[in-house]
Amino acid sequence: MIVRISGEGQYRLDDSESQSLNQLETVVVSAVEGGVEDGFADAFGALLDFIRAHGTLLGDEEIETSDLIIPPADLTFQEAGEEFTGEGLIPE
Question: For residues 42 and 21, what is the distance between their CA atoms, to the nearest angstrom?
């Protein structure tokens, strides 16, 4: 699976990581929908850190179609309200 972090790059993650990725995203969605601004930054940071730690950053010469696009690391809580609602970014 190819995951793009907007403004940062694309990462190749093994498909076996999708369940863990989905669980982390669910925490972000819960924080946003629950209005828990304090918990949002940690949850979103954990999602980004997981992608960076478990994925392989693709080089600039490797352009792949992204299976999932994650907002940039500087996403605000208010902006997250538009992105992480309902089913979130990751389809189940």
Answer: 15
Q: What is the dihedral of CA 8, 6, 32, 54, to 10 degrees?
A: -50
d(CA 19, CA 9): 22
Identify the CA nearest to 21 among candidates 47, 40, 56, 58.
47
Closest CA to 75 of 32, 24, 34, 33: 32
Reading the chain (92 residues) residue by residue, the pLDDT tens digits are: 999 999 999 999 999 999 999 999 989 988 988 888 988 999 999 999 999 999 999 998 888 899 999 999 999 998 888 777 665 556 55
Domain boundaries, the chain: 2-83
- For 25-87, give the DSSP string: HHHHHHHHHTT-HHHHHHHHHHHHHHHHHHSEEPPTT-----SEEEPPTT--HHHHHHHSSTT
